[in-house]
Amino acid sequence: MAELNWGVFDLNLLVVFDAVMNERSVTRAGARIGLSQPAMSHALARLRHLLKDELFIRSPHGMMPTARAEEIAAPVRRALGDLQQSLHAPAFDPAAATNSFRIAVDTYSAMVLAPAVVARCAALAPGMVLDIRASGMLNVPERLDRGDLDLAIGAAEPDGERFARHRLLRDDFVALLGRGLAGAGRALAAGDFAALPHVEVSSLSEELDFLDRTLAGLGLKRRIALRVPLLSAGPVLAGAPMVAVLRRHLAERLARDHGLEVRPLPLASPRVEIAMHWQRRVDGLAAHHWLRQLVAGVAQAL
Which regions span the lipid bilayer (predicted)? Predict the structure, then answer.
């Protein structure tokens, strides 16, 4: 027997074959799969030509399968079932999930979002593993492309249409007053604000270019008294009459943790967007979709 040319074989013909095999009627089989009787007859003719067999013979009891049709019926049914199952998006059960996800976060997201994401995930998907990494030294687009990262969260924007994006937060900047300054009860004037001893967070200093430009336009300049890593900012302000300028959600987190006070800036503040990004090729993965919804829900609740 000549070998079939699978490059031109129409798999829909097997759907027609399976329907006729089950219904033993071309009309009923067509109604079952949504094809007209002429289309069914044409499909059967093509399949008979390709397989070099009549496959079905009309009889008083309907379309009776030939020996060849009986022989291939079970393998065709299994193959169609396996194909349908492989193409059907499986239901995702977070309680039973054991997926592992690698997430890159910037400094802000590590403090503001990551703890709540981890807590929510642990409660809903206790078998899931989250590998959260600092994004500062990573080539995030390249790692997303390679599959070394599943999700990136932060203010940076990977370039290219191959990346999907979902906005999580928009944050302005505020003043975080150290314990010796808190409770003064009066609004900060630009001159008084600039004259205060400022704590600058070393990893976030570039975010404050807007502040220095605006103050310079007023003939003012911040007095930087100390530069510290972010992890030291809260404890330092808890024990010193200094001020730091941070994005609102981060400042509020440190204020809660260290008994500090958040005040509006005495000048206009830009708003910074925090978003999550991922490679579009994983859009349809049920577990990844669930994780994205979880992160979005955490951000919305802040």
Answer: none
Task: Dig out the tokens for 158 from the structure.
Answer: 């990977």
Residues 7-39: tens digit of each pLDDT? 557 888 888 988 888 888 888 988 888 888 899
Other beta carbons within 10 Å of 61? 7
List the beta bridge partners of residue 279.
163
**What backbone phi and psi angles, to 5 degrees, belong to 205?**
-60, -35
Residues 170, 59: Cα–Cα separation, whole Å? 72
pTM greater than 0.85 (yes/no): no
Domain with 203 in it:
171-272
Within a domain: residue 265?
A: yes
Enter the tokens of residue 67: 């020996």
**Cα-atom radius of gyration of the chain, to the nearest Å?**
32
Q: What is the pLDDT of residues 105-131, one digit of tens each?
A: 998 999 999 999 999 999 999 999 999
- Tally the domains of the chain: 3
If asked whether residues 52 and 104 sit together in one domain, one would say no
**CB-CB contact of 215 with 223 (8 Å):** no
CATH for 259: 3.40.190.10
